[in-house]
């Protein structure tokens, strides 16, 4: 087990020191499994940095990209610029997943709780109505009564999308190839990922499914500064990387002069995913999609011959 203080210390290191530690973690994984490893590549900026670091050490290291059909077209185009890339595809399309299991709404945790409660899971029902207690008899931190109204939503809700579209193809490849994944997961991205790092650290070789997350202690700012410092090519969907003060018009004080931001997409996960959309300021991902990718936006929002995501966003109060 690790502590939050340890994570904070690592996150406060210089970029140069972080690069050295990440290189060490990659080497540890490569040697531990006799080179039977691969870099999981999404085409996003985080994994782009990971591939660059890994291939500067091992030029022949395998890189795997899962084409879910949900990526921005610019991502798919960018991935094709890399050599020696293994492309995987899921067995189901997103529309098939939504029809069978339900929409990815709010977060993986909330979607899982709502789905389970609808199947009469006692614990999940308690989490939704706020009555679940912890071991000390106090209100559980895992309660999410704010989202209890989703039980009555006129559409299916599920957290199965990521499992079907990403985890299953990755797990099948890992099993078939016998190779261990190296991912660009960062603890700063979510509470769940931070807690995962606290349990295992960067390299988790003793798990049933060993894995390496050598950039887990990096931040988004580290990634952007790495790209700028080493003039690393990245997907055009992000736009330019510029000082944050140029975008928000702030006076240069404290660390603002070193903070960077992308002028295009802030995230490049699955285009139609709604996880976290309720937390975004306008213009959110769907409002941006309307301007930059109108064809995909129309298919995403419309009900007839589309994904029908508009009705879901209306229900949870997200503008689009």
Structure explained in plain terms:
The chain is an alpha/beta fold and 320 residues long. It has three domains: 4-92 and 160-237, HUPs (Rossmann fold), CATH 3.40.50; 105-152, no CATH class; 271-316, no CATH class. It is built from 14 helices and ten strands. The strands form four sheets. The chain has a four-stranded parallel beta sheet. Strands 4-10 form a two-stranded parallel ribbon. The chain has a two-stranded antiparallel ribbon with strand order 6-7. Helix 6 (108-118) crosses helix 7 and helix 12 crosses helix 13.
CATH classification class of the largest domain: Alpha Beta
Gyration radius from CA atoms, angstroms:
20 Å
CATH overall fold name of the largest domain: Rossmann fold
What's the tally of helices?
14
Q: Give the fraction of residues assigned to helices.
A: 40-55%
Low-confidence stretches: 250-256
Which architecture of the largest domain does the CATH hierarchy give at level 2?
A: 3-Layer(aba) Sandwich
The secondary structure category is alpha/beta
The biggest beta sheet reads:
4 strands, parallel
Q: Strand percentage, roughly?
A: 5-15%
User: How far is the first residue's CA from the last residue's CA?
Assistant: 42 Å
Please provide the ordered H/E string of secondary-structure elements. Answer: HHEHEHEHEHHHEHEEHEHEEHHH
């Amino acid at each position: 087990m690790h502590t939050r203080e340890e994570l904070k210390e690592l996150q406060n290191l210089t970029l140069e020191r972080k690069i050295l530690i990440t290189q060490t973690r990659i080497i540890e994984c490569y040697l531990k499994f006799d080179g039977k490893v691969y870099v999981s590549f999404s085409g996003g900026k985080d994994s782009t940095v990971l591939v660059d670091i890994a291939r500067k050490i091992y030029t022949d290291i395998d890189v795997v990209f899962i084409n879910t059909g949900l990526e921005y077209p610019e991502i798919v185009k960018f991935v094709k610029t890399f050599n020696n890339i293994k492309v995987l595809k899921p067995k189901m399309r997103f529309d098939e997943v939504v029809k069978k299991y339900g929409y990815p709404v709010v977060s993986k945790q909330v979607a899982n709780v709502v789905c389970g409660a609808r199947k009469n899971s006692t614990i999940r029902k308690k989490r939704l109505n706020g009555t679940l207690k912890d071991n000390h008899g106090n209100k559980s931190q895992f309660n999410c009564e704010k989202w209890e109204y989703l039980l009555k939503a006129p559409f299916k809700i599920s957290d199965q999308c990521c499992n079907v579209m990403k985890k299953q193809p990755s797990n099948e490849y890992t099993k078939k190839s016998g190779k261990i994944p190296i991912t660009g997961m960062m603890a700063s991205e979510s509470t769940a990922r931070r807690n995962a790092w606290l349990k295992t650290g960067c390299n988790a070789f003793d798990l049933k499914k060993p894995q390496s997350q050598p950039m887990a202690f990096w931040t988004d700012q580290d990634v952007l500064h790495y790209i700028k410092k080493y003039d690393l090519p990245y997907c055009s969907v992000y736009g330019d990387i510029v000082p944050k003060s140029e975008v928000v018009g702030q006076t240069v004080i404290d660390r603002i002069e070193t903070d960077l931001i992308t002028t295009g997409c802030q995230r490049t996960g699955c285009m139609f995913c709604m996880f976290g959309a309720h937390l975004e300021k306008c213009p959110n991902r769907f409002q941006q999609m309307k301007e930059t990718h109108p064809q995909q936006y129309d298919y995403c929002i419309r009900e007839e011959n589309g994904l029908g995501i508009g009705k879901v966003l209306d229900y949870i109060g997200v503008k689009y």
